[in-house]
Amino acid sequence: MIVPRFLDVADETIRPAEMGIRLLHDPVMNKGSAFSLEERRRLGLLGLLPPHVSTIEEQIARVLGNVRAQPDDLRRYVEMISLLDRNETLFYKVVMENLEEMMPIIYTPVVGKACQVYGHIFRRPRGLFITRRERGRVREVLRHWPNRGVRVIVVTDGERILGLGDLGANGMGIPVGKLSLYTACAGVHPAVTLPITLDVGTNSAELLADPLYLGMRENRLRGADYDELVEEFVLAVQEVFPHALIQWEDFANHNAFRVLETYKDRACTFNDDVQGTAAVTLAGLCSSAALTGLPLKEQRFLFCGAGEAAIGIGELIVAALAAEGLPKAEAAARCWFMDSKALVESTRRDLQEHKRAFAHDHAPIADLASAVRELKPTALIGVSGKKGQFTREIVAEMARLNRRPVIFALSNPTDNSECTAEQAYAWSEGRAVFASGSPFGPVRRGDQTFVPGQGNNAYIFPGVGLGVIASGASRVIPEMFLEAARTLAACATKEDLAVGRLYPALSRIQDVSARIAAVVAEAAHARGLAGEPRPEDMLAHVRSLQYVPAYKTYV
Question: Interhelix angle for 277-292 vs 308-323, to 10°?
Answer without folding.
Answer: 60
